[in-house]
Design a protein that fits this description.
5% of the residues lie in helices and 43% in strands. By secondary structure, it is mainly beta. It has one domain (2-30, 49-179, 263-411): Lipocalin. Strands 1-35-34-33-32 form a five-stranded antiparallel β-sheet, with no helix packed on it. Strand 6 and strand 7 (99-104) form a beta hairpin. The protein is globular and about 50 Å long.
């Protein structure tokens, strides 16, 4: 693997900020006597057995070639590529921030990428550990996997949902699942120490239900969602895509409420937002709006913006004033000002081969975004580009690989 660098990619200011957060966090447990412990026996605040805590985000890319099954983990801190066990016939690859889920006809293979973060709200812990295989979850290509710090929910194509204890996965074991009652129209989503599901209400739409982590129904807010597709969890709440807009579910002191953010106009089925992408921690979501436009949902402002673009292959944004990044069929990345809809930056062609507008986003090039960089996989060129989206989409680094990286997700965020 060869890395080409254009400029030093990491900002020292970001490192200092995270280091200060880590220092402040450690200070919370500076007096072990407050817990009846001794300085030598007390584990440091945030201690995780078998992991190293670091002051900066430990980003890694999980990459897979469905044809050969070749799989790699690219450590973006060290630039090292790790070869891991092969997974063939992967239809799509997803992540919950730590684990990579390889969806295949034989079930969902789970890989622990060894990089993750724990967000305590006022501070964040970043960890790195060894990469290892975990096992296989039931459910074929139609299975949808969503997870949080405590549970991983797997919803089969038939709507049956099971939850697995995250602590077992962290030990390298799948463990025994707990089955939720009934069937669900879309993925069951862990949120606010509960589980959100959409069940058929018998009236042609799906009704929102809230389960506790034991699978007991604890709330049924008066909210419905027709033809649900797509979901995302943000700091402002959980977003569920519906035919007429997005349903925002929020929790406040144990009470769950739901509010619809409508498109404002009738949107044809082929131009709906059905698969959201965003930077973890951001409240700005993106989704293709047909073949030549992108929806941007500002969850804070409860507002949709439709940005007209060229033919869209993939899109994403860091939010909070950043550009909308769009990979178009010319193989170039295009940056758009979300407020005005104007194109403000463009790269040379980066991705080789024939690109299809309106792709399902499950295979082929995708754009992953974190706090300082974006990443674009070029399957035919066997490489990954690191993009500085704050510097006119400058290519900061290029990682040449020995596999076809047709599928890619980022972990450690």
């Amino acid at each position: 693997m060869f890395v080409r660098r254009n400029r030093t990619p990491w900002a020292s200011a970001a490192f200092v900020t995270v280091a200060l957060l880590a220092t402040g966090c450690a200070g919370q447990d500076a007096d072990p006597s407050a817990r009846g412990a001794t300085p030598t026996s007390a584990a440091p605040h945030g201690y995780v057995e078998g992991a190293q805590e670091r002051a900066e985000q430990q980003s890694r890319l999980v990459l897979n070639d469905p044809g050969s099954g070749d799989t790699r983990v690219l450590d973006l801190i060290t630039g090292k590529v790790h070869e891991v066990s092969r997974t063939t016939d992967t239809t799509h690859l997803t992540t919950d921030g730590r684990f990579g889920y390889f969806h295949t006809p034989r079930g969902t293979h789970v890989l622990d990428s060894g990089a993750w973060m724990v967000d305590h709200g006022d501070h964040v812990h970043y960890y790195r550990a060894r990469i290892r295989d975990v096992g296989r979850l039931p459910g074929g290509p139609g299975a949808r996997v969503r997870g949080d710090a405590a549970v991983t929910a797997v919803t089969d194509a038939d709507g049956r949902a099971r939850t697995y204890r995250r602590a077992e996965l962290e030990k390298g074991e799948v463990g025994s699942p707990r089955t939720l009652p009934g069937t669900h129209a879309e993925a069951v989503v862990p949120y606010a120490e509960h589980l959100l599901g959409l069940t058929d209400d018998g009236k042609g739409s799906a009704k929102l239900v809230v389960y506790d982590r034991e699978g007991r129904r604890v709330a049924s807010p008066d909210a419905r969602c027709e033809d649900p597709r797509g979901d995302a969890v943000t700091r402002r709440g959980a977003v569920l895509g519906c035919s007429d807009g997005a349903l925002l579910v929020r929790e406040d002191d144990g009470t769950f409420t739901a509010e619809k953010t409508p498109y404002g106009d009738d949107v044809p089925a082929g131009q709906r937002a059905t698969a959201f992408r965003h930077r973890p921690g951001s409240d700005t979501l993106t989704a293709p709006a047909g073949e030549r436009a992108v929806w941007v949902l500002d969850v804070t402002e409860r507002a949709w913006t439709r940005v007209n673009t060229g033919p869209v292959v993939s899109a994403n944004t860091a939010g909070e004033g950043s550009v909308l990044i769009v990979l178009e069929t010319d193989g170039s990345l295009h940056g758009y000002d979300i407020a005005t809809g104007k194109q403000v930056s463009e790269t040379k062609p980066l991705v080789k081969g024939d690109l299809d507008a309106g792709a399902d986003g499950k295979t082929g090039p995708v754009i992953e975004v974190d706090r300082s960089r974006a990443y674009l996989n070029d399957p035919e060129g066997k490489r990954v580009y690191e993009i500085d989206y704050n510097d006119n989409l400058r290519v900061a680094r290029t990682f040449d690989l020995d596999i076809v990286p047709a599928l890619m997700v980022e972990t450690g965020r």
